[in-house]
Amino acid sequence: MPVFDVGYRPWSGERESAWRRVGVIATTGIRLAWKNQWLRRMLFVAWLPAIYFGIAFFAYERALEEGAGETLGRAIIMRMPEGRLTVDQVFQGGTAERRPVWAFMLMTLFRYPQGLLMVMLVGLIAPPLISRDLRTRSHLLYFSRPLGIAEYVLGKATVVGTYLFLISTLPAVCLYVLGVLLSPSLSVVGDTWDLPLRVCAASVIVVIPTTAIALALSSLTEETRYASFGWFAIWVVGWVAHSSLMIMDAERLGRFAMDIPSRWTFVSLYHTLGDLQSSIFGFQVEARRLQIATAILTGLTFVSLVVVFRRMWVLHRR
């Protein structure tokens, strides 16, 4: 046998389980991402909005005990984004109910401060996940082992999902627990038991499409900066287009843009996600908008996964 015969050979060792292989890729990616100081700062900043909403929960619970829940609840909601459009849904019948107020505050936490941080965080950690492997040829080392493409992609996706959980799901769940602790009685759990489940569902709605899109962009180039540019361009262009169309509608109707329902959410990925999140938290959204949002996110996720797996399959065959 030649001394320098280094070709591929069948694996003769004992295989670890598929989940163990996914876990190794995920933990490696999580550790590498954690070395970034900006990421650690971002995780710290992600908890600051939860503190602000915690104060709002405390004030609202005290107002409920004193019989002024509706007055303070309306004041809190009217000062939040889209509060003017949603306040009538929260206080149906003119009564102050804890559950819709809590749901609105949790939804606002998800859609605005955590939504912005989500875009920044994914743009920070996702672009290098695959593009760096392509640039350094690390993917050759991965696929020289008994590792499937699905396991590789799932491991990379777990990295993004873990950090999204830390900045969105965990603060929202902690905020809910804080609200329960601030309530005069644990009977509040019976009124709001479904909110943690809705938080988890809203997280899934965000994690799956955003992770798929980010990994697809990362797999298309060896240059991380190109993947980062593509990621932020999707959100910025969509937001600008949506804002411009809303301003045009407001000028035509002679009203303030925030006082009219948006009919252009489908041009912005951010607002498309917002429609589904609003529906998950129990607020009415037009059926047509929900259908369009579901179709857009499903289509983007499917196309992104096809791109990632196709790209990995081509590299695996080389």
List the helices and strands and how they pair.
Elements: H1 18-34, H2 37-46, H3 48-65, H4 69-78, H5 83-90, H6 98-111, H7 113-125, H8 127-136, H9 138-143, H10 149-182, H11 188-192, H12 195-219, H13 224-253, H14 269-280, H15 287-317
Outline type = globular
Radius of gyration: 23 Å
Instruction: Bin the strand percentage.
Output: under 5%
Total domain units: 1
Number of helices: 15
Give the N-to-C terminal Cα separation: 25 Å
Poorly predicted regions: none
Query: What is the number of E strands?
Result: 0
Order of helices and strands: HHHHHHHHHHHHHHH
| Major sheet size, sense and barrel closure | none
Proportion in helices: over 70%
Structural class: mainly alpha
- Average the pLDDT over all residues and give the rounded result: 82
Write up this protein:
The protein is mainly alpha-helical. It has one domain (18-317). Helix content is 76%, strand content 0%. It contains 15 helices and no strands. Helix 1 crosses helix 10. It starts with 17 loop residues before the first helix and ends with a helix.
Overview in brief:
By secondary structure, this protein is mainly α. It contains 15 helices and no strands. α1 packs across α10 (149-182), α7 runs antiparallel to α10 and α7 runs antiparallel to α13.
How would you describe this structure in keywords?
globular
